[in-house]
Every structure is written in structure tokens, then in C-alpha cells.
Amino acid sequence: MTDNLFQDIKQRDNPKTYRYFNGVSWKTSSSGRCIPIHFPHDGSIIGYVQAVTREEIDDVIQRAARAQQEWRHVSLKEKMTMIKRAAQILRDYESFFTEMLIVEIGKSRYEAKSEVLRTADSIEFCTYEVINLYGYAIKSDVFPGYKEDIVSHVERVPHGVILAIGPFNYPLNLVASKVAPALLMGNAVVVKPPTQGSISGLMLTQAFVKAGIPKNIISCITGEGREIGDYLTTHPGISMIAFTGSSSVGQAMAQRVGMKPLLCECGGNNPVVVLPDADMSLTAKEIVRGGFAYAGQRCTGIKYVLAMKETRDRLLPLVLEYMNTMIHVGDPRDDATSLVGPVISEKAAEEIERVIQDAVSQGATIVSGGSRRGAYIDPTILTNVSNDMRVVKEETFGPIVSFIDIASIDEAIEIIASSAYGLQASVFSLHESAARRIADRLPVGTVQINGSPQRGPDHFPFMGIKASGLGVQGIRYSLEAMSRLKSVVVNPTE
Ligand code: G3H
What we know:
Blueprint: E1 17-18, E2 20-21, E3 26-27, E4 34-38, E5 45-50, H1 54-71, H2 76-92, H3 94-105, H4 109-130, E6 136-139, E7 151-158, E8 161-165, H5 173-184, E9 188-192, H6 198-210, E10 218-220, H7 225-233, E11 240-244, H8 247-257, E12 262-265, E13 270-274, H9 280-292, E14 302-307, H10 309-326, H11 346-361, E15 365-368, E16 372-373, E17 376-377, E18 380-383, H12 390-393, E19 400-405, H13 409-417, E20 421-422, E21 424-428, H14 432-441, E22 446-449, E23 465-466, E24 469-470, H15 475-481, E25 483-490
Bound molecules: glyceraldehyde-3-phosphate (G3H).
């Protein structure tokens, strides 16, 4: 397969420069400004994307709103055919998407390829699930004082124009997981990819365009969030926002946008509670996988482990052993690289390094790693950590797992409950009933028993509480979120 499919995106006179998609064609912004996109490994520039203007945003949204009026009436069967085609394009062009993720966001080849294939599967799965979303009718007579002669016909209708804002760590999957359900439910979509991840977002948009999505129903605009973010999110033409990103950006956006439906997937600092009877080998493996995959840059990444000292003493050597066998730090282009490549930028790595140093200055001990080379942070294990240290209190998007000693399970639950975040937590124990009792008491969106936190499989509900988010994602839940209920009540005339 050649990369011809993506040629339109590039400017002919400067093939390193990518254009934005205004819903009809690929355009160079009238701003005359471009944003460089850097390879996280060494900071070299891999391309430039357009910094679009407010006028261009207005134009895209206005035309999307008009086109959506027709799109909502296109049959579901036709929509499903187009969406399935988009999934197939991702599969056909898997190696192009994989290579792009490797150089644009520094994901290892294995993880990049899984993101592409997982995205294709999720897109297609939406088409299976959407046919199970039915309308229904409710009769009035169940309510005191009413006869059965009033009927509410309830159906799902689109919001209108949905703004889909994706994060840098999954620029395909967490954009497609918004776009596919939004389109199937009859909305138009304006994609705002993350800056680092923009090129992947443009390529994904092209997959939907080539799958036959009609003009103006999908567009992709690029620019710095801090320049166009507020303008876009508060734009009166945007009916609903589906966002994945940091808690600080999500919270600021929620305050600004007023009464617009929001689906927000934000940060997490996911804890693991290890009971003395846990399978220590399984637990250690899951901690390494959950803490270090994609260099710890996942909102579901494991950030701290809560165990009593005796349990920690049995677990930690195994964690260090698995780190040696499972992690291979390296250039993401290299097939041997496993779990830990560079973080997204050297600036981000410098901040992670500061967080480690802060923890050490407050009494934490570095058991492994702790140092930085450019954008690379050595996989780090800290002990003697307390929950008031930034490394645990804030979401640290890097390859660090901290151990906090606890005196009792109640203390572990208190620590988790006091966190600003509430995405996921894991409990490791061979006694399911004991683990479930703890799970019941944990104020988070999801508790994993004997497994590390993760969003997938993608049809499971995925949601955070507190600073971790608003609303529920997951294929069926996203389809519901991308639509609203509408009721038509028929009253008797006689
Ligand atoms: O970064 C946030 C993602 O939703 C995490 O997804 O658990 O599949 O890595 P994941």
C-alpha cells in the first residue's frame, strides 16, 4: 500500500507542511503561520501544521451546522457502511499510521501498531452497537392520576456539531472513539487534534473522508490549544464537546463553556492496593506493565502502590526483576524498545525530573532510575513516598511508580479517597470477596481486581470521578453521550 491516500494533506511546495481540512478540501491557513511538530526522541522537526484563524474556525463550524441537517437524515445503514470503510482504511494503511505515531508521539512500534488496530476495531464495533440503540414509548397510566391515553415517544437525536478534542497519547484512538459514535448518531464533527499528534489526527480525518463521509460533516482544524481552545469550546455553533486531556484544561473548559453537554476524560493517579495474599508474581508483572507502558503517559497508568511493609518487601524485588526483563528503554523506531521510550518532549521530561527531585528532597528514596537524558526518563521506582508529595498528589505523566507503606487497608482507602483524582484503582488479592469489599469502598470510576488499570476493552464503560472526568465513554456509552433523548408526547384529542 502506498501513501497516496495522504498526499492531499501535504502542501505541494513544501511537503513537510500539512494542511488542515475545512470539511471540503485541504487548505493552507490564511494566518500564514505554522506550528512545528517534533520527534520526541531527539526534538527534530518532522513537519509543520497550520495555525488556523478564528475566521477559518467560524467558516468550518457554520458549514458543519448546515450540512448536519442533511446528514442526520442519511440512513443508519449508509452511515454504518461508511464508518466500516474508515475502519478498513486504518487496517489497510496500518503501517503508515504506525510509522506516524512512532515519530510524532514517540510510541514504541508495538504500542503504535496496537493503537492503530485497536482503533480500527473500535470504529467497526460502533457499527455493531449502534443498531441496538432503540427508541421506546411510555404510557401515562403508571403514574398516579393518569389514564393510559398519553404516550411519550422517546428517541435518540444528534446534538448537532460535536467538537472532538484528542490527547497526544492516543491521537488516533481517542479521536476516533469520539468521531465514529458522533457520526453514527447523526452529528457533524469538528476534530481538534492535540498539537503533538496533529499529523496523525489529519491522517485519521482523511480516512473518514476517503470512506465517503459527505462534505462538511467532518473537518480537522489545527492550532495551539492556548490560542484557539477557548474560542472553539465557547463557540455558539458547537453543540457538544468530547474532550480527552489534562484535568486542569478539562476543569477550566467546564467552567467556561456553560450549559453545553460535555464528555471529559481527564487525568488519573491510579493506585494499586496489594493484599498480603496476592499472587506477587502476577502483581509485579501488572505493576510494570501498568506503570511503564508508553513511558507512563497514560491516564490509566499506575502511579502508586499501597502495601504493608512486609508485603512490599516481598513484592518490590519481583517488580525490579520484571522491570529488567519487560522494559527496554530506547528509540521508539527500534523494534527492541519495549514500554519506555522518550516522553513527549524534553520540556515534559524536565518537569518529571523536578517532580522526582521534589519527592527525594521530601524523603523519598530512589530504588531504581531517577535520571533523565534529553526526553528520556529512566524507569523509576520510589519508596518512602507519602501521598502529599507531588509525584503522587498530581498526575505525573512519566515512567515512575511510587511505593507508599500503609499500616492497614483502612489507611489505603483513606489515602485513595483523599486524592483529587478518581479514575481507576487496582486491588490484588487471591480472595475475590475480600478484593470486592475493598472495591466497594473505593471512590473511583473503575476498580480492577488482579489487573492493572486500563480503559479497554473499548466497549467497557470508562469514566472518572472528581478531577478525572465527566460522563461515560465506551462504545455504547459514547453513542449515548453523542446523542440526546428527545420525547414527543401525544395527548388525546377527545
Ligand atoms: O490516557 C488515557 C487513556 O484513556 C488510557 O487508555 O488504558 O487503553 O491506555 P489505555
